[in-house]
Design goal:
This protein is α+β, with helices and mostly antiparallel strands and about 200 residues long. The protein has four helices and seven strands, in the order βαβαββααβββ. The longest helix is centred in the middle third of the chain and has 20 residues. The chain is globular. The N and C termini lie far apart (about 40 Å). The mean pLDDT is about 90.
Amino acid sequence: MHPFSYCDITVYGFHGCNQDIKQRLINKEIRFECSTNRYDWLGSGIYFWENDFPRAHYWAEQSHGDNGAVIGAKIRLGKCFDLSNSFAKELLILSYNDLCVEWKKANTIPIENAPHPRGIGNPSDMILRYLDKLVIENAILLASLQEPDIIYDTVRAPFQEGFPVYPGSAFREHDHIHLCVRNPDLLTELFDPGQ
């Protein structure tokens, strides 16, 4: 087992959406859709703020106004590619170097992360994580080539975002743990966190 695989840990996650989607998910009329945006920094999957209802609520209000809502989930991490782990970051370096070789062979300009297109928030946040998504997806592919029986269910990482919480602070106003669920079967329970 990889040192960054956790098979039996369960966490709470919160997902921002609109009121209609929330009700339909809770009523089991629909299932979560996998996000596949080019900027989804942890790769394709369903995104949650781990143990952070207020951050999910803030995002939902920013995205959907008065129609914003939050759904909670108990999530079993399963085999987790956890970027708070040093070994996982070593694999990211290998993945990035692998991509650099491919870009050089193809005479292609490397992909980069970018700030918010409307200048919202701290410009250093680089909120559009085009490069990070590619590196993560390639790292997971490289790991599966080394050990074909390893299929990652989740990807988990700390995310720094926003302005410093006080002058000189390394803590930022929107820092959080982000969780990308690649295997929706590990969403063991959905609930309304407002009840």
